[in-house]
Amino acid sequence: MHTFRMKLQLNLYKAVMALTLFFIVFIEAGTIVTAQSQVFADILSPVMRLLLPILIALLLGSSLLILFRCLDKMGKKGLWIYTGILFVILLAGFGVILSNFLPFSSTDAYNMQDMAMYLAKTGEKPISDTAPHASYFGMFSNNYFLTVIFAKFINMLSRAGITEVQFALLALSVAGMIIATIFLYLTGIRIGGLKGGAKILTLCVLNPIYYILPMWIYTCSFSIPFTAAVIYFGVRLLKEESWKDRVISAILFAVFGITGYYIRPTVVIPMIAFVFCYILDHLIGKKKIKESIQSFGIVLLIGIVVSHGISGLNQSYFETVSAQNYPITHWLMMASHGDGEHNKEDYAYTHQFRTKEEKTQATVDRMIKNYKSYSFSELMAFEQKKLMVSWCYADGGDLIEKISQDQKNTPLYTWILGSRFDLFRAYCYGFRISNMAFLCLALWRLLKRKKEDILQVFWAVSILGGILFYCIWEIKSSYGMPFVMLFLLLGMAGIDESKEKLFQKRDEKYAYKCGWTELVLLVCVICICLVSGEQMRKSKIPVYQWSVHCINGTSAKKMEDVGKTVHINQKFEALHSFNRIGLIVSAGDRAKEFNDILQVQLTDEKGNRIYRGKIQADKVGEHGSVILKFPKVTPTKENKDYHLRIWNKKPHKGKLRVWYRKEFYMHSYKGKLKVDGRNHFENLYLQVYKETKEPWCDKKQMLVIAGIFLLWTAIVLVIIPKKRCNENVEKGER
C-alpha cells in the first residue's frame, strides 16, 4: 500500500509538471511571436522587431544569473543591505508612478468607483433602482465587495478632509502591490532563507508590470495582495511543524483566501492548487492525515464565517438589484465562441430572459451548441487563439489602454503609455521571455527528478489552474496579470538551476576561447543597436500631448434627449497646447439621406473664435470619430478655459447625435455641459490634444539608448567569463 501511494504521488506529480511544461513552452513561443508583431510595429523591420526583445531577454537572463550567483556567496549582513536597497528602489519606482500618473478609470472600474462615491455621499443602503449604475450592479455581482470597500475608504477620506479621491485610490492600489511584494518576500524567506527572499525581491523589482498594474484601479490589481497572502500561508501550512503555527496559518489562509475571492474569484485558484498539493504531500502517513483534517477543518470553519459576513455586507447594499444578476454560465457561453472576449450581442441575448433560471438555461444551451459546432481541429485552433490573447501579451495588452486615460500627462507618460511606449513594451516582452525560459527549465528539471518538490508543484498547479480556467472563461490579456507572481516564484527555481550549469568548472582551453565568444557577441549587439537605432531615428510617428483624454468611446452614450433643434455648449479646461479636438458623432440612415449638418465653433474664455466648421451626416459612421483640426492653441494661466459650441441652423430630419460620457460623481476632465440651456452633470466624450509628426527618437536619444544596451552587454560579457576563469585558477586547473 505504501509503495502504491508513492507511485500514485509520483505519477500525479509528473503529469502536472508535463502538462504545465507543455503550456509554458506554448506561451513562450507565443510571447516571442506577439512581441515581433506588436512592439515597434511601424518603426523597426521585422528582423529587428524579433531580435530586440530576444536581446533584452538574454541580457536580463544573464544579469539574473550573475545576481543570483552573487547572492549565493553573500553573507547575512550583505543580504540585509541588498534587500534594503531593493525595497528603496521599489518604493522609488512607485513614487515615480504616483508623482507622474493619475489615470482615470473607464468601463467596469469607473462604474465601481462612481458607485462608491454615490454610496459615500448619500449613505443609501440598500441602493434604489434609480441609483447611478444600478442596472450595471444588477447584472454583475462580482464587484460588490470592492465597491463597498471603496465607499468606506472614501468616507474615511471625507472625514480626514481629503478631496483628491482619484489619487487616494491610486495610492491604495500601490499600497496593495507593496503588501503583495512583502508577502512574496516572506515566501522567499520560507523556501530559501534570506537568499530566497532577496532573489524573489530582485525579480519583483525588475518586473515592469509591477509598476503599471496598480494604475488599473480594479479587482484584478486589488486581488494581488490576497493571492500573495494565500501563497505565503499555503507555504506555511505545507511546511509548518508546530500545531500552534499551523492553526494561525490556517486561519489567515482562510481569511485572505475568502476575502480575496469576493474581490476577484481567481484568488481561489491557488487555494485549489494548495488543496491538491496538500493531499499529494500527505498521501503517506497517518500522522499527516490527522494534521490535514485539523487544518482543513479550521480553514473550512473560518471560511464559512468570513463568507457569511461578506455576503451579508454585500446584500445590505445591493439586495434590491442582486436578483437580476447574470449567472456565471453567461461568461462561459461568451467564452465559447468568436474570440472568447467581451461580446455585446451575448449580453443582449442573456438580458432578454427575465429570471435567473431562464438566463442560466438559455446560456447553458447556447454554450453547448457553440462547442458542438466545432470539429476537433477547430476547437484546438479556437483554444490556441484564447491562449495567445490570455498569456502572450507581456505588457498586459488591453491593460495599457485601460490606464492610458491619464489626467496629468507628464513627459514620462509618452515613454510608458503614450506615443513612444514601444521601448517599455520591449522590456516587458524581454522580461516575460526570459522568465518563461527559466520556467521551462525549472519544469524540465523537476520532471526528471524522482522525488517531488511540493512547493514547486504548488506554483506549477496554480499556474496550470489559471491557464485551464481561461480556456473556458471570458478572456482579456490583462486578466492573467495576477498570476505574474507565480511565474516569478517558479522562474526563480529555474534561475537557480541554470546558474549551476552556467558557472560549472571550465578548463583553460574554454577560458582562452571565451575571449572570441565575447567579441562576436559584442559585435552582434552593436549591429542590433546601430540598425534598430537608425530605424527609430528615421521613423516618423504621430506624437500626442493630451489635455483631455477620453479613450476609445468607452463609458460613452449618444445624446438622445435633444429635439429637432440642437444647441450644445461644452466648457473644458486645457493645460497644454492643442490643435485637435475629437468627438464621437453617430448618424442614422435618415440623417444621411437628408444630409443633416451640425455647426461647430470653438472659442476661448474671452470669446475669441479659434475654429468654425461643420459636421455632415453623410460623412459620419454609426459610431464615428470626428476630428476637428486647427492651428495650435496655447493656453495661459489667465486663459485656459474654452467653449465648444455645437448647434444646427435648420431642424434635423433624422438623428445626428453627439456622444457624452456616462459620468455621475467622478469626471474625467474639468468641464461644464449645457444642452438647450439646461445644465447636465455629464460631459461630452472629448479628446483635446496636440498632434505632431516627429522621429521616434532624435540622435542624442538614440545614442543614450544604444549606450545603455552596449554597457549592459559589456558588463554581462566581462563578468561571466571572468568568474569561469577565476574559479578554474583557484582550483588549480591550469
Automatic annotation (TrEMBL):
Query: What topology does it adopt in the membrane?
Result: Multi-pass membrane protein
What parts of the sequence cross the membrane? 12-35, 47-67, 79-102, 134-155, 167-189, 209-235, 247-263, 269-285, 292-310, 429-447, 454-473, 479-495, 516-533, 702-720
> InterPro entries in the record, alphabetically?
LipidA_mod_glycosyltrf_83
UniProt signal peptide:
none
The answer to whether the entry has keyword Nucleotide-binding is no
Answer yes or no on keyword ATP-binding: no
The protein in question is named Glycosyltransferase RgtA/B/C/D-like domain-containing protein
